[in-house]
Design goal:
heterodimer; A: about 500 residues; 26 helices; about 60% helix; about 0% strand; elongated; B: about 625 residues; Rossmann fold; Syntaxin Binding Protein 1, Chain A, domain 2; 14 strands; globular; Spe-39 (chain A); endosome (chain A); Spermatogenesis-defective protein 39 homolog (chain A); cytoplasmic vesicle (chain A)
Amino acid sequence: MIKSKVDEEDYWHSSKFKAFTFDDEDDELSRLKESRQAVNNIRRLVEEDDDEDDVERISWSGEPVGSISWSVKETAASSQRADREPAFPKISTDTPSISRSQSGYSLSSLFKGKPKVGNFQTFSDALTDSSVRLYAPELRKPKSEYKDYVSDWSPEETVQRLQQGKAVSLERFRTLQDKLLLLDHAIAAHDGNVITAVLIYLKRTLCKEVLFRELESRQTALRHFIHYLSETQNQRLLLELHRALGRAEDAALLQYKEHLSITDENKRRDFLKNCLSLPFSAEDLAHVQDHYTLLERQIIIEVTDRQAERGGKVEIFQKFPRKALILNMPLITTLYYCCFYHYAEPEGTFSSPLNIRQTFKISEKQYFVTALAARAKLKAWLDVDALFASRNWLGFTRKKSPLSFQRVVDILQKNSAPTHVLQDYVALVDDGELRLTLAQKHKCHDIVISVRSADAVQTYRDMKDRQLLLGYRGKVVRGSAEERKIDDLLSNPQIRWKN
Amino acid sequence: MAHSARRDSPELPDFSILKRLARDQLIYLLEQLPGKKDLFIEADLMSPLDRIANVSTLKQHEVDKLYKVEHKPVISTSDQLCFLIRPRIQTVKWICDVVNTDKVPGKSRRYKIIFTPQKFYACEAVLEEQGIFGDVSIDEWPFYLLPLDDDIISMELPEFFQDNFLAGDQRWVRTAGSALHLLYSLYGPFSKVYGIGRCSKMAYESWREQVEEGEQKARQAEIGNVFLIDRDVDFVTPLCSQVVYEGLVDDIFRIKCGCVEFGPDVTASDKSVKVMLNSHDKVFSEIRNEHFSNVFGFLSQKARNLQTAYDKRRGMDIKQMKTFVSEELKGLKQEHRLLSLHIGASESIMKKKTKQDFQELLKTEHLLLEGFEIRECISYIEEHINRQVSMIESLRLLCLLSITENGLLPKDYRSLKAQYLQSYGVDHLLTFSNLRQLGLLVEQQPGETLTVMESKVGKLVNDKTAGKLTDAFSSLAKKSNFRALSRKLNLVPKTDEEYDLRVPRDMAYIFSGAYIPLSCKLIEQVLERDGWTGLEEVTRLLNGHEFAVTGSSGVDSRGKNDTQRIILVMFLGGCTYSEISALRFLGREKGYKFIVVTTAITNSSRLLEALLDNHV
């Protein structure tokens, strides 16, 4: 199963140049280079021999994609096909049919290409062809079928050889028609590696206007090309491609993405500002605008706060030193930061939470959640309380929240709110059963014992469950208000206990 | 844990040959560069390499020092450098830098690149462009398949997913075909091949061509039928929270190449421990496929048994004690160790899951699968986002919402996207663009949009190419049709019945009885019907690309022998442990043995992380 045996290695081992190329001292560098050049020249000759050898030795077999060179294939394959049917049938794939190019191949085949691409592909063949010998002896074909030396491979054969990692020169595909035919055959073969190989060749030999135009109608090839360009980080060409094909939004996003590699915050901000002129969709443009505004503001806040922190005059920065820079943080993190360090600031300042809420049109619920978490973290319970009250102050004393009270309790509890704070909110949970569960979980005895609201449901008392209440008595602090309450209840003759 | 298993399940083929083969191939390649050499290994190849060879194997073949490819300047002093890498352009560029840096002071070394599982022309083009083609020798190590367990084989190619489905790059199609061909030549011939998905179809074609190119040896088949499936046929399943033990362990601790690292919270000591999770672990093999709610009971029962076994020592005389120590104690100790690890893991899972209101999360997922109370689900997701709970988790729920609902209402889409960007960063614009491209998170389109777009573009280009465009668009605008599929295939069992998770009645048990994985259901149906007949409506909803073919040489007179019940399922783009558990269950019920071949093991986090685009 070993696929490749390195002929090059063999060559080096047997070569008299070996000593020079690899083991020489530095001062012999120039001589070495000369030798290397000589060797390379020889190698090229050797390869050509190999190549020819290869042509004589190796054939191919397989199904035709279109109708091209069917006859050639038939002769080539008949010797093997005669005695065995293909084990599995070919299934219809969504292959576009390929029309045979009528332009003769003969002209281009005169120009046997041996520049770069050809070179590397022949070279790769030199690396792998020996494996073919080991691998598939059945592929040898009779002498009579030799092609007229190297470059007579049809597009289809070329694709097939590329798929098998064999040597092939693409240089003979010179007319546009030939190039496209080759590309279409590569697409039809569904081998991304080969499609990309052909695209690299086309990129080198076609001007981009023509290449882009042809790619437009070949979506599969287009996607391969885009992927190739992004992998090779050829941003410039990729942008041109998107623009040429009218993919303005893709181009805009791609350009926007570049900001990630800019580390200096001021440069990044300026870059984002420039992005605002890119053809984003209206919706995305608003987001990019926000991104720019946010970073701009973060830079200002960062400068001010760093000074305040260093100055040592502002208490909050002394008590809770900042753990990280606010630069490049998401909006909500920034809001949290401002609720934490700049809560009481007037709306006119950049760092005021209210200003941020206003500027970025943060939803009420979102603002509420963030402010709640930040103030709870600081254990500023009065602020927490005010959050619920301020919004419903018209004579109502009831707390209201855009967030379910269960969630509120959860947030408070995660910020280790004390029981007396927690129980206020647990009491506001609508669902009685849930309220009880939460009360038990957070040890809010008052609620468990349920003396607070007349319509309270599902408490021990309401359940007339004396045993549970007794059990609960054991858990409360001796001599506490809770204990007295329980004792009162237990001694209350009005209650008919069920147990 | 006793399942009503059919006892006549056939034996699985021996896949350890694959490891031996890969090792021998690697050794051969290393010998191609005689003498001492330093070996640079691509980071994500280290674990797979560990499974088939060890350091001493490498040392025996004159590997001096081992380095991880880190894209930093090399400090090696060896005069021979060997690079064992995936065919990635960035890695090749780094190697070019290494070689070119050496050239400056005229340092001469020998370089060899071993690409695995194959090389790509694009990589060679980089070598050429950087002027070092010919300075390095190139080889391929066809290490296609790594058996992770008796019935799991992985190609360890996680990038298959994003390359193929997101970028639309078909570079791995032939690789998949070659992997299948390798299995075919070792364990074939196959009788039948079923499949669904564009990539499956192409991989089948590639394999078929390779069969025709190669020799065919008559041999006793060890694998009967093959089922190929694209990951994009079913995105719902990998996006659900896993609740079967093995899947849960993967979701929380991340199993890597069949091995998991349990941290101090699990080991109850100050060090981490790496454990192989496979059928050789006697404790694990009994709980891996179980719903998590059964695992505790099982483990405590097991612990009691172990105690009893230990207790036997009491009252033993010296001779009995000697036998006990020499025969049983080692096994007991081993079991003890494993048991305490899995108990620790379960406890840690419980802790993590209760902390984040797992119950509520699961409830939302189940509602989405059933299609009930969607508004409540949306506000749950919204709250998740508002509170900046895990970025991946929020995205997972959004995608699940979008696929099950066939896209979000434009109003919801905008609002949720805006809130997401506010909570996790505007950079995620790119992530959303990826998700839309893949069809994972989209706006609902009014009915005609597609045809309008087609005709509009059709006019721009000439008629000849319009056909190709239609094809391209149909893949872009792929609708999930989940609701309709779910009805057709009964994926969501009726909720009014109690589901006893200890005695599962169908594959839905892997999701607490709430949902039968679509991928596995398709496999079940096709095997039952011996093809796609009767599933026309289903395949239409899945955007077609289904096939079922019979090999002329495969069907022999032996007919329904054991081999016919050995089914190889190949997931192109990854599969989850939950799906494997479901297939094992199906196998036990119907007397099949499934072998799962996958491009990589995946889960919701891996799947979505591959699509994140908020980094350089």
